[in-house]
Design goal:
The complex is a heterodimer of chains A (235) and B (360).
Chain A (H helix, E strand, L loop, with lengths): L2 H31 L2 H4 L22 H7 L4 E8 L2 E8 L2 E6 L5 E2 L4 H11 L6 E7 L14 E6 L6 E5 L5 E5 L1 H14 L11 H25 L5 H4 L1
Antiparallel strand pairs in A: 1-2, 2-3, 3-4, 5-6, 6-7, 7-8
Chain B lengths: L2 H48 L27 H6 L5 E9 L2 E8 L3 E5 L10 H10 L11 E3 L11 E5 L7 E5 L5 E5 L1 H14 L13 H26 L17 E4 L5 E5 L6 H5 L20 E4 L8 H6 L2 H5 L2 E3 L8 E4 L3 H11 L1
Parallel strand pairs in B: 8-12
Antiparallel strand pairs in B: 1-2, 2-3, 4-5, 5-6, 6-7, 8-9, 10-11, 10-12
The chains are: A alpha+beta (235), B alpha+beta (360).
Chain lengths: 235, 360
Protein backbone atom coordinates (compact mmCIF):
# COMPACT_ATOMS: atom_id res chain seq x y z
CA UNK A 1 0.00 0.00 0.00
CA UNK A 2 1.41 3.39 -0.94
CA UNK A 3 1.93 6.22 1.53
CA UNK A 4 -0.65 8.27 -0.39
CA UNK A 5 -3.28 5.57 0.12
CA UNK A 6 -2.40 5.16 3.80
CA UNK A 7 -2.77 8.92 4.32
CA UNK A 8 -6.04 8.99 2.42
CA UNK A 9 -7.50 6.09 4.41
CA UNK A 10 -6.32 7.64 7.69
CA UNK A 11 -7.99 10.91 6.74
CA UNK A 12 -11.33 9.38 5.81
CA UNK A 13 -11.52 6.92 8.71
CA UNK A 14 -10.52 9.77 11.03
CA UNK A 15 -13.37 11.83 9.66
CA UNK A 16 -15.80 9.03 10.55
CA UNK A 17 -14.41 8.38 14.01
CA UNK A 18 -12.96 11.74 15.08
CA UNK A 19 -15.82 12.75 17.32
CA UNK A 20 -16.09 9.41 19.11
CA UNK A 21 -12.31 9.15 19.45
CA UNK A 22 -12.26 12.57 21.06
CA UNK A 23 -15.12 11.53 23.35
CA UNK A 24 -13.20 8.40 24.39
CA UNK A 25 -10.08 10.43 25.06
CA UNK A 26 -11.87 13.18 27.00
CA UNK A 27 -14.02 10.79 29.06
CA UNK A 28 -11.05 8.51 29.69
CA UNK A 29 -8.96 11.46 30.86
CA UNK A 30 -11.74 12.57 33.23
CA UNK A 31 -12.08 9.10 34.71
CA UNK A 32 -8.36 8.54 35.30
CA UNK A 33 -7.78 12.03 36.72
CA UNK A 34 -10.67 11.99 39.19
CA UNK A 35 -9.79 10.11 42.38
CA UNK A 36 -12.18 7.17 42.49
CA UNK A 37 -12.54 7.40 46.28
CA UNK A 38 -13.66 11.03 45.92
CA UNK A 39 -16.07 10.00 43.18
CA UNK A 40 -17.51 7.34 45.49
CA UNK A 41 -18.15 10.09 48.04
CA UNK A 42 -15.73 8.83 50.67
CA UNK A 43 -14.69 12.32 51.88
CA UNK A 44 -18.35 13.22 52.45
CA UNK A 45 -19.01 10.64 55.10
CA UNK A 46 -17.57 8.74 58.00
CA UNK A 47 -19.41 5.48 58.42
CA UNK A 48 -17.90 4.89 61.87
CA UNK A 49 -19.58 8.03 63.28
CA UNK A 50 -22.39 6.83 65.48
CA UNK A 51 -21.67 3.21 64.69
CA UNK A 52 -19.39 2.49 67.65
CA UNK A 53 -21.11 1.05 70.65
CA UNK A 54 -20.02 0.76 74.25
CA UNK A 55 -22.68 -1.44 75.75
CA UNK A 56 -22.67 -4.89 77.23
CA UNK A 57 -24.37 -7.88 75.70
CA UNK A 58 -27.91 -7.26 74.43
CA UNK A 59 -30.79 -8.50 76.57
CA UNK A 60 -32.14 -10.39 73.58
CA UNK A 61 -29.26 -12.71 72.59
CA UNK A 62 -28.17 -14.23 69.31
CA UNK A 63 -29.43 -17.56 70.64
CA UNK A 64 -32.87 -16.02 71.24
CA UNK A 65 -32.84 -14.59 67.74
CA UNK A 66 -31.90 -17.90 66.11
CA UNK A 67 -34.58 -19.65 68.09
CA UNK A 68 -37.23 -17.16 66.95
CA UNK A 69 -35.97 -16.92 63.37
CA UNK A 70 -34.24 -20.19 62.46
CA UNK A 71 -34.06 -19.31 58.76
CA UNK A 72 -32.55 -15.86 59.26
CA UNK A 73 -29.39 -15.03 57.31
CA UNK A 74 -26.88 -12.17 57.44
CA UNK A 75 -27.54 -11.71 61.15
CA UNK A 76 -25.75 -8.71 62.58
CA UNK A 77 -25.71 -6.72 65.81
CA UNK A 78 -25.02 -3.05 65.17
CA UNK A 79 -25.43 0.33 66.80
CA UNK A 80 -27.44 3.17 65.40
CA UNK A 81 -27.63 6.43 67.30
CA UNK A 82 -26.47 4.86 70.54
CA UNK A 83 -28.98 2.05 70.36
CA UNK A 84 -28.26 -1.57 69.56
CA UNK A 85 -30.26 -3.35 66.89
CA UNK A 86 -30.22 -6.63 65.07
CA UNK A 87 -30.48 -6.71 61.32
CA UNK A 88 -31.14 -9.92 59.42
CA UNK A 89 -32.55 -11.18 56.17
CA UNK A 90 -35.79 -13.03 56.68
CA UNK A 91 -36.94 -14.77 53.52
CA UNK A 92 -34.43 -12.66 51.61
CA UNK A 93 -35.77 -9.38 52.96
CA UNK A 94 -33.68 -7.17 55.26
CA UNK A 95 -35.39 -6.41 58.59
CA UNK A 96 -34.49 -4.60 61.81
CA UNK A 97 -35.19 -5.93 65.29
CA UNK A 98 -34.92 -4.65 68.80
CA UNK A 99 -31.93 -5.98 70.75
CA UNK A 100 -33.97 -5.72 73.94
CA UNK A 101 -37.20 -7.48 73.04
CA UNK A 102 -36.45 -8.99 69.63
CA UNK A 103 -39.55 -7.37 68.13
CA UNK A 104 -39.61 -6.41 64.48
CA UNK A 105 -39.12 -2.66 64.14
CA UNK A 106 -40.64 -0.35 61.54
CA UNK A 107 -38.66 1.51 58.89
CA UNK A 108 -36.94 4.72 59.84
CA UNK A 109 -39.21 7.76 59.85
CA UNK A 110 -38.09 11.03 58.30
CA UNK A 111 -36.64 12.48 61.49
CA UNK A 112 -34.67 9.31 62.20
CA UNK A 113 -33.33 9.36 58.62
CA UNK A 114 -32.30 13.01 59.00
CA UNK A 115 -30.56 12.25 62.28
CA UNK A 116 -28.78 9.28 60.72
CA UNK A 117 -27.63 11.40 57.79
CA UNK A 118 -26.30 14.12 60.06
CA UNK A 119 -24.36 11.57 62.04
CA UNK A 120 -22.41 10.16 59.09
CA UNK A 121 -22.10 13.38 57.06
CA UNK A 122 -18.76 15.12 57.63
CA UNK A 123 -19.55 18.37 55.77
CA UNK A 124 -21.28 21.52 56.92
CA UNK A 125 -24.04 21.91 54.35
CA UNK A 126 -27.65 21.93 55.44
CA UNK A 127 -30.08 19.22 54.50
CA UNK A 128 -32.61 20.37 51.91
CA UNK A 129 -35.00 17.42 51.98
CA UNK A 130 -35.32 13.72 52.70
CA UNK A 131 -37.35 11.48 50.42
CA UNK A 132 -38.36 7.88 51.09
CA UNK A 133 -38.10 5.49 48.15
CA UNK A 134 -39.99 2.26 48.68
CA UNK A 135 -40.58 0.67 45.29
CA UNK A 136 -38.33 2.37 42.77
CA UNK A 137 -34.90 3.89 43.30
CA UNK A 138 -33.48 6.99 41.62
CA UNK A 139 -31.35 6.15 38.57
CA UNK A 140 -28.15 6.97 40.36
CA UNK A 141 -28.44 4.15 42.89
CA UNK A 142 -29.00 0.42 42.71
CA UNK A 143 -32.56 -0.63 43.56
CA UNK A 144 -31.26 -3.73 45.37
CA UNK A 145 -31.02 -1.76 48.60
CA UNK A 146 -34.65 -0.56 48.61
CA UNK A 147 -36.32 0.79 50.69
CA UNK A 148 -34.07 3.79 51.20
CA UNK A 149 -34.02 7.40 52.32
CA UNK A 150 -32.59 9.95 49.90
CA UNK A 151 -31.14 12.91 51.81
CA UNK A 152 -30.23 15.92 49.66
CA UNK A 153 -27.66 18.43 50.88
CA UNK A 154 -27.36 22.11 50.10
CA UNK A 155 -23.77 22.17 48.86
CA UNK A 156 -22.13 23.25 45.61
CA UNK A 157 -21.88 19.73 44.23
CA UNK A 158 -25.45 18.73 45.16
CA UNK A 159 -24.38 15.91 47.43
CA UNK A 160 -26.97 13.28 48.22
CA UNK A 161 -26.78 10.56 50.84
CA UNK A 162 -28.70 7.32 50.54
CA UNK A 163 -29.49 5.48 53.75
CA UNK A 164 -31.18 2.17 54.30
CA UNK A 165 -34.72 2.82 55.50
CA UNK A 166 -34.46 -0.48 57.39
CA UNK A 167 -31.17 -0.10 59.27
CA UNK A 168 -30.39 3.62 58.90
CA UNK A 169 -26.92 2.67 57.69
CA UNK A 170 -25.32 4.58 54.86
CA UNK A 171 -25.73 2.90 51.49
CA UNK A 172 -23.96 5.35 49.24
CA UNK A 173 -23.15 9.00 48.58
CA UNK A 174 -23.61 10.78 45.26
CA UNK A 175 -22.59 14.22 44.02
CA UNK A 176 -22.25 16.10 40.73
CA UNK A 177 -18.75 14.76 40.04
CA UNK A 178 -20.12 11.22 40.43
CA UNK A 179 -23.03 12.10 38.12
CA UNK A 180 -20.59 13.53 35.57
CA UNK A 181 -18.45 10.39 35.94
CA UNK A 182 -21.55 8.32 35.18
CA UNK A 183 -22.23 10.38 32.04
CA UNK A 184 -18.58 9.98 31.04
CA UNK A 185 -18.89 6.23 31.52
CA UNK A 186 -22.06 6.21 29.38
CA UNK A 187 -20.29 8.10 26.59
CA UNK A 188 -17.21 5.89 26.95
CA UNK A 189 -19.08 2.59 26.50
CA UNK A 190 -21.69 4.11 24.15
CA UNK A 191 -24.63 2.56 26.00
CA UNK A 192 -26.97 5.53 26.22
CA UNK A 193 -29.80 3.65 27.94
CA UNK A 194 -28.72 1.33 30.73
CA UNK A 195 -25.16 2.71 30.95
CA UNK A 196 -23.83 -0.77 31.72
CA UNK A 197 -23.93 -2.85 28.53
CA UNK A 198 -20.47 -2.89 26.94
CA UNK A 199 -21.64 -5.44 24.34
CA UNK A 200 -23.58 -2.95 22.23
CA UNK A 201 -23.35 -2.65 18.44
CA UNK A 202 -22.48 1.09 18.46
CA UNK A 203 -19.31 0.29 20.37
CA UNK A 204 -18.49 -2.59 18.01
CA UNK A 205 -18.82 -0.42 14.90
CA UNK A 206 -17.02 2.62 16.25
CA UNK A 207 -14.20 0.60 17.86
CA UNK A 208 -13.64 -1.28 14.61
CA UNK A 209 -13.51 1.95 12.61
CA UNK A 210 -11.29 3.54 15.25
CA UNK A 211 -8.99 0.52 15.04
CA UNK A 212 -8.58 1.09 11.31
CA UNK A 213 -8.02 4.83 11.87
CA UNK A 214 -5.32 4.05 14.43
CA UNK A 215 -3.62 1.36 12.35
CA UNK A 216 -3.38 3.70 9.36
CA UNK A 217 -2.28 6.47 11.72
CA UNK A 218 0.50 4.31 13.14
CA UNK A 219 1.62 3.39 9.62
CA UNK A 220 1.62 7.09 8.80
CA UNK A 221 3.67 7.84 11.91
CA UNK A 222 6.26 5.34 10.70
CA UNK A 223 6.22 6.96 7.26
CA UNK A 224 6.60 10.43 8.78
CA UNK A 225 9.60 9.45 10.89
CA UNK A 226 11.50 7.23 8.48
CA UNK A 227 14.71 8.69 7.05
CA UNK A 228 14.02 11.33 4.42
CA UNK A 229 15.43 10.87 0.96
CA UNK A 230 18.91 12.26 0.47
CA UNK A 231 19.30 15.51 -1.44
CA UNK A 232 21.19 13.72 -4.19
CA UNK A 233 18.37 11.32 -4.65
CA UNK A 234 15.88 14.17 -4.90
CA UNK A 235 17.88 16.16 -7.40
CA UNK B 1 -5.17 49.49 3.14
CA UNK B 2 -2.53 51.22 5.19
CA UNK B 3 0.97 49.81 5.67
CA UNK B 4 0.29 48.88 9.30
CA UNK B 5 -2.93 47.10 8.33
CA UNK B 6 -1.08 45.18 5.63
CA UNK B 7 1.61 44.26 8.13
CA UNK B 8 -0.96 43.11 10.67
CA UNK B 9 -2.74 41.02 8.05
CA UNK B 10 0.60 39.53 6.99
CA UNK B 11 1.52 38.66 10.57
CA UNK B 12 -1.92 37.16 11.09
CA UNK B 13 -1.59 34.96 7.99
CA UNK B 14 1.92 33.94 8.99
CA UNK B 15 0.77 33.13 12.52
CA UNK B 16 -2.12 31.06 11.23
CA UNK B 17 0.16 29.21 8.81
CA UNK B 18 2.58 28.43 11.59
CA UNK B 19 -0.28 27.26 13.78
CA UNK B 20 -1.52 24.86 11.11
CA UNK B 21 1.95 23.43 10.59
CA UNK B 22 2.62 23.30 14.33
CA UNK B 23 -0.60 21.35 14.83
CA UNK B 24 0.49 18.80 12.26
CA UNK B 25 3.91 18.50 13.89
CA UNK B 26 2.28 18.17 17.33
CA UNK B 27 -0.07 15.48 15.99
CA UNK B 28 2.85 13.58 14.49
CA UNK B 29 4.93 13.63 17.70
CA UNK B 30 1.97 12.80 19.94
CA UNK B 31 1.16 9.88 17.63
CA UNK B 32 4.71 8.65 18.15
CA UNK B 33 4.39 8.91 21.94
CA UNK B 34 0.85 7.67 22.55
CA UNK B 35 -0.01 5.87 19.28
CA UNK B 36 0.80 2.39 20.55
CA UNK B 37 -1.19 2.88 23.76
CA UNK B 38 -4.11 4.25 21.74
CA UNK B 39 -4.01 1.04 19.70
CA UNK B 40 -3.95 -1.00 22.94
CA UNK B 41 -6.93 0.96 24.31
CA UNK B 42 -8.95 0.33 21.18
CA UNK B 43 -8.02 -3.35 20.87
CA UNK B 44 -8.75 -4.08 24.54
CA UNK B 45 -11.94 -2.02 24.39
CA UNK B 46 -13.05 -3.98 21.35
CA UNK B 47 -12.16 -7.22 23.14
CA UNK B 48 -14.37 -6.27 26.11
CA UNK B 49 -17.09 -5.42 23.62
CA UNK B 50 -16.88 -8.63 21.59
CA UNK B 51 -15.97 -11.30 24.16
CA UNK B 52 -18.99 -12.76 25.91
CA UNK B 53 -18.97 -12.31 29.71
CA UNK B 54 -19.04 -16.08 30.26
CA UNK B 55 -15.66 -16.44 28.53
CA UNK B 56 -14.13 -14.06 31.09
CA UNK B 57 -16.02 -15.50 34.07
CA UNK B 58 -13.94 -16.40 37.12
CA UNK B 59 -16.72 -18.30 38.85
CA UNK B 60 -18.17 -21.03 36.65
CA UNK B 61 -17.38 -23.59 39.37
CA UNK B 62 -18.01 -21.41 42.40
CA UNK B 63 -20.66 -22.50 44.84
CA UNK B 64 -22.45 -19.76 46.75
CA UNK B 65 -22.49 -19.83 50.51
CA UNK B 66 -25.51 -21.73 51.74
CA UNK B 67 -27.71 -20.40 54.50
CA UNK B 68 -26.85 -22.25 57.70
CA UNK B 69 -29.05 -23.28 60.53
CA UNK B 70 -27.16 -23.49 63.79
CA UNK B 71 -28.00 -26.40 66.00
CA UNK B 72 -25.42 -26.12 68.74
CA UNK B 73 -26.10 -23.45 71.40
CA UNK B 74 -24.34 -20.13 70.99
CA UNK B 75 -22.19 -18.71 73.76
CA UNK B 76 -23.14 -15.44 75.34
CA UNK B 77 -21.49 -12.47 73.69
CA UNK B 78 -21.12 -10.54 76.95
CA UNK B 79 -17.48 -11.37 77.57
CA UNK B 80 -16.55 -10.82 73.97
CA UNK B 81 -18.11 -7.38 73.84
CA UNK B 82 -16.61 -6.49 77.21
CA UNK B 83 -13.11 -7.57 76.15
CA UNK B 84 -12.93 -5.44 73.00
CA UNK B 85 -15.00 -2.47 74.07
CA UNK B 86 -11.96 -0.21 74.35
CA UNK B 87 -11.26 -0.68 70.63
CA UNK B 88 -14.71 0.67 69.79
CA UNK B 89 -17.01 -2.08 68.54
CA UNK B 90 -18.78 -1.43 65.26
CA UNK B 91 -20.53 -4.67 64.47
CA UNK B 92 -20.94 -8.24 65.64
CA UNK B 93 -22.02 -10.64 62.92
CA UNK B 94 -23.09 -14.23 63.16
CA UNK B 95 -21.69 -16.23 60.30
CA UNK B 96 -20.41 -19.75 59.79
CA UNK B 97 -17.35 -21.70 58.77
CA UNK B 98 -17.72 -25.37 57.81
CA UNK B 99 -21.28 -25.34 59.17
CA UNK B 100 -20.09 -24.18 62.59
CA UNK B 101 -21.30 -20.83 63.91
CA UNK B 102 -18.75 -18.03 64.06
CA UNK B 103 -18.89 -14.53 65.52
CA UNK B 104 -17.17 -11.88 63.41
CA UNK B 105 -16.39 -8.93 65.66
CA UNK B 106 -15.46 -5.70 63.89
CA UNK B 107 -13.88 -2.90 65.89
CA UNK B 108 -12.47 0.41 64.69
CA UNK B 109 -9.11 -1.40 64.39
CA UNK B 110 -9.79 -4.80 62.90
CA UNK B 111 -12.12 -7.77 62.52
CA UNK B 112 -11.66 -10.89 64.62
CA UNK B 113 -13.39 -14.26 64.36
CA UNK B 114 -14.45 -16.56 67.20
CA UNK B 115 -16.20 -19.90 67.30
CA UNK B 116 -19.67 -18.90 68.46
CA UNK B 117 -20.14 -21.99 70.64
CA UNK B 118 -16.92 -21.61 72.65
CA UNK B 119 -15.74 -18.02 71.98
CA UNK B 120 -12.32 -19.52 71.15
CA UNK B 121 -10.51 -17.51 68.47
CA UNK B 122 -11.07 -19.04 65.06
CA UNK B 123 -8.11 -21.17 64.07
CA UNK B 124 -8.26 -23.38 61.02
CA UNK B 125 -6.15 -26.43 60.26
CA UNK B 126 -4.83 -27.09 56.75
CA UNK B 127 -7.44 -29.80 56.31
CA UNK B 128 -10.23 -27.38 57.32
CA UNK B 129 -8.99 -24.70 54.94
CA UNK B 130 -8.88 -27.29 52.17
CA UNK B 131 -12.42 -28.38 53.08
CA UNK B 132 -13.58 -24.75 52.73
CA UNK B 133 -11.95 -24.55 49.29
CA UNK B 134 -13.56 -27.84 48.29
CA UNK B 135 -16.94 -26.68 49.53
CA UNK B 136 -16.77 -23.61 47.31
CA UNK B 137 -15.95 -25.64 44.20
CA UNK B 138 -18.27 -27.63 41.94
CA UNK B 139 -15.78 -28.52 39.21
CA UNK B 140 -14.43 -31.97 38.42
CA UNK B 141 -10.76 -31.14 39.01
CA UNK B 142 -8.62 -32.47 41.81
CA UNK B 143 -7.78 -29.78 44.39
CA UNK B 144 -4.13 -29.45 45.33
CA UNK B 145 -2.78 -28.89 48.81
CA UNK B 146 -2.62 -25.30 50.07
CA UNK B 147 0.07 -22.92 49.00
CA UNK B 148 0.45 -19.93 51.32
CA UNK B 149 1.08 -16.80 49.28
CA UNK B 150 3.89 -14.64 50.55
CA UNK B 151 3.66 -11.87 47.95
CA UNK B 152 1.13 -9.05 47.95
CA UNK B 153 -2.30 -10.05 46.74
CA UNK B 154 -5.19 -7.95 45.45
CA UNK B 155 -7.51 -9.48 48.03
CA UNK B 156 -8.87 -7.80 51.13
CA UNK B 157 -7.68 -10.53 53.50
CA UNK B 158 -7.15 -10.31 57.25
CA UNK B 159 -4.69 -13.19 57.45
CA UNK B 160 -2.37 -14.97 55.07
CA UNK B 161 -3.91 -16.16 51.81
CA UNK B 162 -3.98 -19.86 50.91
CA UNK B 163 -4.16 -20.75 47.23
CA UNK B 164 -5.41 -24.06 45.88
CA UNK B 165 -4.97 -25.10 42.27
CA UNK B 166 -7.23 -27.57 40.51
CA UNK B 167 -6.80 -29.86 37.54
CA UNK B 168 -9.90 -28.73 35.62
CA UNK B 169 -9.63 -27.43 32.04
CA UNK B 170 -9.90 -23.81 33.19
CA UNK B 171 -7.06 -24.17 35.71
CA UNK B 172 -9.29 -22.85 38.48
CA UNK B 173 -7.50 -21.42 41.51
CA UNK B 174 -9.22 -20.91 44.85
CA UNK B 175 -8.08 -18.30 47.38
CA UNK B 176 -8.98 -18.59 51.06
CA UNK B 177 -8.37 -16.10 53.88
CA UNK B 178 -6.81 -18.31 56.57
CA UNK B 179 -7.85 -15.89 59.34
CA UNK B 180 -11.57 -15.89 58.62
CA UNK B 181 -12.02 -18.94 56.43
CA UNK B 182 -13.63 -16.70 53.83
CA UNK B 183 -13.45 -17.68 50.17
CA UNK B 184 -11.72 -14.61 48.74
CA UNK B 185 -11.99 -15.48 45.07
CA UNK B 186 -11.92 -18.05 42.37
CA UNK B 187 -9.68 -17.34 39.41
CA UNK B 188 -8.99 -19.23 36.21
CA UNK B 189 -7.53 -18.84 32.72
CA UNK B 190 -10.65 -16.90 31.68
CA UNK B 191 -10.36 -14.36 34.47
CA UNK B 192 -6.61 -14.14 33.78
CA UNK B 193 -7.49 -12.94 30.27
CA UNK B 194 -9.92 -10.42 31.76
CA UNK B 195 -7.25 -9.19 34.20
CA UNK B 196 -4.76 -8.92 31.34
CA UNK B 197 -7.22 -6.82 29.32
CA UNK B 198 -7.85 -4.55 32.31
CA UNK B 199 -4.14 -4.28 33.02
CA UNK B 200 -3.45 -3.19 29.45
CA UNK B 201 -6.45 -0.85 29.30
CA UNK B 202 -5.62 0.80 32.64
CA UNK B 203 -1.84 0.63 32.09
CA UNK B 204 -1.49 -0.79 35.58
CA UNK B 205 1.50 -3.06 35.17
CA UNK B 206 1.93 -3.65 38.92
CA UNK B 207 -1.54 -4.93 39.79
CA UNK B 208 -0.49 -6.84 42.93
CA UNK B 209 -2.73 -4.71 45.11
CA UNK B 210 -5.62 -4.67 42.63
CA UNK B 211 -5.92 -3.06 39.22
CA UNK B 212 -6.38 0.72 39.43
CA UNK B 213 -6.61 3.60 37.00
CA UNK B 214 -5.72 6.63 39.15
CA UNK B 215 -1.98 6.59 38.54
CA UNK B 216 0.43 9.00 36.92
CA UNK B 217 1.33 6.87 33.89
CA UNK B 218 -2.20 6.50 32.56
CA UNK B 219 -3.01 10.08 33.57
CA UNK B 220 -0.07 11.46 31.56
CA UNK B 221 -0.78 9.32 28.51
CA UNK B 222 -4.47 10.25 28.66
CA UNK B 223 -3.58 13.92 28.37
CA UNK B 224 -1.27 13.14 25.44
CA UNK B 225 -4.06 11.19 23.77
CA UNK B 226 -6.52 14.02 24.35
CA UNK B 227 -4.21 16.48 22.61
CA UNK B 228 -3.63 13.92 19.84
CA UNK B 229 -7.38 13.91 19.28
CA UNK B 230 -7.73 17.68 19.49
CA UNK B 231 -4.85 18.31 17.09
CA UNK B 232 -6.28 15.66 14.74
CA UNK B 233 -9.65 17.38 14.70
CA UNK B 234 -7.95 20.73 14.09
CA UNK B 235 -6.10 19.22 11.12
CA UNK B 236 -9.33 17.73 9.75
CA UNK B 237 -10.99 21.13 10.07
CA UNK B 238 -8.08 22.74 8.27
CA UNK B 239 -8.24 20.14 5.49
CA UNK B 240 -11.96 20.75 5.19
CA UNK B 241 -11.30 24.48 4.99
CA UNK B 242 -8.82 23.84 2.20
CA UNK B 243 -11.35 21.74 0.26
CA UNK B 244 -9.57 18.43 0.83
CA UNK B 245 -12.48 16.71 2.51
CA UNK B 246 -15.21 16.74 -0.10
CA UNK B 247 -16.78 13.29 -0.22
CA UNK B 248 -15.92 11.28 -3.36
CA UNK B 249 -19.57 10.68 -4.34
CA UNK B 250 -20.52 14.34 -4.19
CA UNK B 251 -17.23 15.54 -5.57
CA UNK B 252 -17.28 17.57 -8.73
CA UNK B 253 -16.65 15.20 -11.63
CA UNK B 254 -14.10 16.74 -13.92
CA UNK B 255 -14.04 14.12 -16.62
CA UNK B 256 -14.42 16.88 -19.16
CA UNK B 257 -10.82 17.49 -19.93
CA UNK B 258 -7.52 15.89 -19.26
CA UNK B 259 -4.62 16.33 -16.96
CA UNK B 260 -1.48 16.26 -19.09
CA UNK B 261 1.86 15.63 -17.43
CA UNK B 262 5.13 16.54 -19.14
CA UNK B 263 8.81 15.94 -18.42
CA UNK B 264 11.18 18.79 -17.67
CA UNK B 265 11.98 18.73 -21.41
CA UNK B 266 8.32 19.26 -22.28
CA UNK B 267 7.87 15.65 -23.48
CA UNK B 268 4.38 14.30 -22.80
CA UNK B 269 4.57 11.58 -20.11
CA UNK B 270 0.95 10.71 -19.50
CA UNK B 271 -2.60 11.94 -19.60
CA UNK B 272 -5.18 11.38 -16.87
CA UNK B 273 -8.94 11.64 -17.18
CA UNK B 274 -10.03 10.26 -13.77
CA UNK B 275 -9.57 13.48 -11.84
CA UNK B 276 -10.73 12.70 -8.33
CA UNK B 277 -9.13 14.17 -5.26
CA UNK B 278 -5.84 15.98 -5.44
CA UNK B 279 -3.42 16.07 -8.39
CA UNK B 280 -1.20 13.61 -6.52
CA UNK B 281 -4.08 11.19 -5.92
CA UNK B 282 -5.18 11.43 -9.58
CA UNK B 283 -1.65 10.82 -10.87
CA UNK B 284 -0.90 7.99 -8.41
CA UNK B 285 -4.22 6.21 -8.84
CA UNK B 286 -3.46 2.49 -9.28
CA UNK B 287 0.31 2.93 -9.07
CA UNK B 288 2.75 5.18 -7.25
CA UNK B 289 4.14 7.11 -10.21
CA UNK B 290 5.11 10.18 -8.24
CA UNK B 291 6.97 9.09 -5.11
CA UNK B 292 6.49 10.85 -1.80
CA UNK B 293 7.78 10.43 1.73
CA UNK B 294 4.77 11.71 3.62
CA UNK B 295 2.06 10.27 1.40
CA UNK B 296 0.49 13.58 0.55
CA UNK B 297 0.62 15.41 3.83
CA UNK B 298 2.40 18.42 2.42
CA UNK B 299 5.45 17.73 4.56
CA UNK B 300 8.11 16.20 2.31
CA UNK B 301 7.81 18.40 -0.77
CA UNK B 302 8.61 15.52 -3.13
CA UNK B 303 5.36 15.82 -5.06
CA UNK B 304 5.98 19.34 -6.29
CA UNK B 305 5.04 19.95 -9.94
CA UNK B 306 5.08 23.01 -12.17
CA UNK B 307 1.83 24.35 -13.50
CA UNK B 308 2.41 25.40 -17.09
CA UNK B 309 -0.71 27.50 -17.05
CA UNK B 310 -2.69 29.14 -14.26
CA UNK B 311 -1.12 27.77 -11.08
CA UNK B 312 -3.52 27.64 -8.12
CA UNK B 313 -3.16 30.03 -5.22
CA UNK B 314 -0.44 28.63 -2.93
CA UNK B 315 -1.67 27.32 0.40
CA UNK B 316 0.13 27.05 3.77
CA UNK B 317 2.04 23.94 2.81
CA UNK B 318 3.20 25.42 -0.53
CA UNK B 319 4.38 28.52 1.28
CA UNK B 320 6.20 26.44 3.86
CA UNK B 321 7.93 23.99 1.53
CA UNK B 322 8.60 25.99 -1.64
CA UNK B 323 10.93 28.89 -2.24
CA UNK B 324 9.71 32.24 -3.56
CA UNK B 325 11.37 31.46 -6.89
CA UNK B 326 9.64 28.10 -7.14
CA UNK B 327 6.31 29.71 -6.32
CA UNK B 328 6.93 32.37 -8.95
CA UNK B 329 7.67 29.63 -11.50
CA UNK B 330 4.24 28.12 -10.84
CA UNK B 331 5.52 25.19 -8.77
CA UNK B 332 3.06 23.81 -6.24
CA UNK B 333 2.72 20.72 -4.07
CA UNK B 334 0.49 18.40 -6.09
CA UNK B 335 -0.86 16.82 -2.87
CA UNK B 336 -2.39 20.10 -1.78
CA UNK B 337 -4.65 21.05 -4.66
CA UNK B 338 -7.79 19.56 -6.11
CA UNK B 339 -7.19 18.12 -9.57
CA UNK B 340 -8.48 20.04 -12.60
CA UNK B 341 -7.79 19.61 -16.30
CA UNK B 342 -4.41 21.26 -16.72
CA UNK B 343 -0.86 20.98 -17.97
CA UNK B 344 1.82 20.06 -15.44
CA UNK B 345 5.56 19.45 -15.61
CA UNK B 346 7.88 17.35 -13.47
CA UNK B 347 10.33 19.46 -11.50
CA UNK B 348 13.25 17.09 -10.67
CA UNK B 349 15.19 14.38 -12.44
CA UNK B 350 14.49 12.08 -9.51
CA UNK B 351 10.79 12.34 -10.28
CA UNK B 352 11.49 11.26 -13.87
CA UNK B 353 13.62 8.33 -12.71
CA UNK B 354 10.93 7.19 -10.23
CA UNK B 355 8.32 7.57 -12.93
CA UNK B 356 10.25 5.30 -15.28
CA UNK B 357 10.80 2.75 -12.50
CA UNK B 358 7.09 2.71 -11.75
CA UNK B 359 6.35 1.77 -15.36
CA UNK B 360 8.09 -1.60 -14.93
Amino acid sequence: MTATKIRTYHKWFALLTALQLLIWMATGAYMVWMDIEFIRGKPLVNKVNGAVFHVKAPAYSFTDFIKDHPNATALSLYAHQDTLFYSAKIAGKLQRFSSVTGELLPQLNQQQALDAAEQVYTGKAKIIRATLHQQTAPNEISPHALPMWQVELDDAMHSTLYLSAVTGQLLSARHDYWRLFDIMWMLHIMDYETRENVHNPFLTIMSSLALLTTLFGIALTYISFRNPKSCEEQA
Amino acid sequence: MSCSNKLNTGIEILGKRHRNLAMQTLHKWLALIVGLQLLIWIVTGLAFNLIDEQFLDANPYRVDDKAQSFNSPLASTANLLQQYQTEGIIELKLTSVLSRAVYALTTTKQTRWFWADSLEPLSLSDAEIQAIAKGSYSGSGVISSAQILTNKTPFDASGSVAMFTTSDPLDTRIYIDTASGAVLAHQNSQSDLKDLLFMLHFMDYTPDNGIGFNHLLVQSISIGALFLGLSGIYILGHKCHQGQLSLPFIRRKTAIGKLALYTQDAQLLAEFTDLNGTYLESINRGRERLRTQCGGGGRCGLCKLRFVEQPPIPNDYDLDKLTATELAQGIRLSCQHEAHPSKLELVTKAQHRDWQKSEY
